[in-house]
Amino acid sequence: MERSAQEELSALAAIFCGPGEWEVLSRSETDGTVFRILTKAEGLTDADVPLELVFHLPVNYPSCLPAISVTSEHLTRAQCAAVKEKLLEQAENLLSEPMVHELVLWVQQNLRHILNQPEMGSGSGKCTFAASTAVDDGLWITLLHLDHMRAKTKYVKTVEKWASDLKLTGRLMFMGVPDSSENFQNRCGLKWKEMQREND
């Protein structure tokens, strides 16, 4: 890693010195450095939105762009993707110079404007991803647990609508006490097959 990048990492550690604000996730002479910065920026409702920014600085950084991941429990997946896209656009303007602190300052000042764009909805879905040192945004896994479901059909339709609106794929699983004769028959059939297998 270039000397300017090493100096930048030291400066960032000094700037983001609050509890949990800064964490190095991995460091390698071949893959570079991955670290996380926790910060806040003003959202649409004037309230601060917590942001988790993960940067992957390759070994030839700042001659090439860092990989960036944006997550927040207060933003939808689409909003996180839009923030990431704008950060990468901004990073292109800063190529060949240390840029991480500039990018953090930029997102703190511009988050409200990004979220205010017409294509950005104010949905309540949360933007999350599995805890990992990887910055790849290709696979997202989310588990939605509904407890005490009174109107199963209504819940299923709501979840299907969310999946359709967000262009997600997934599975619905029903666990616990069977609530329909069909479900009960399926469970009994499964047990019967298992018992039959044991007797064979």
UniProtKB/TrEMBL annotation:
<feature type="domain" description="RWD">
    <location>
        <begin position="7"/>
        <end position="114"/>
    </location>
</feature>
<dbReference type="InterPro" id="IPR006575">
    <property type="entry name" value="RWD_dom"/>
</dbReference>
<dbReference type="GO" id="GO:0033235">
    <property type="term" value="P:positive regulation of protein sumoylation"/>
</dbReference>
<dbReference type="InterPro" id="IPR038840">
    <property type="entry name" value="RWDD3"/>
</dbReference>
<dbReference type="Pfam" id="PF05773">
    <property type="entry name" value="RWD"/>
</dbReference>
<dbReference type="GO" id="GO:0005737">
    <property type="term" value="C:cytoplasm"/>
</dbReference>
<keyword id="KW-0539">Nucleus</keyword>
<dbReference type="GO" id="GO:1902073">
    <property type="term" value="P:positive regulation of hypoxia-inducible factor-1alpha signaling pathway"/>
</dbReference>
<dbReference type="InterPro" id="IPR016135">
    <property type="entry name" value="UBQ-conjugating_enzyme/RWD"/>
</dbReference>
<dbReference type="GO" id="GO:0005634">
    <property type="term" value="C:nucleus"/>
</dbReference>
<keyword id="KW-0963">Cytoplasm</keyword>
<protein>
    <recommendedName>
        <fullName>RWD domain-containing protein 3</fullName>
    </recommendedName>
</protein>
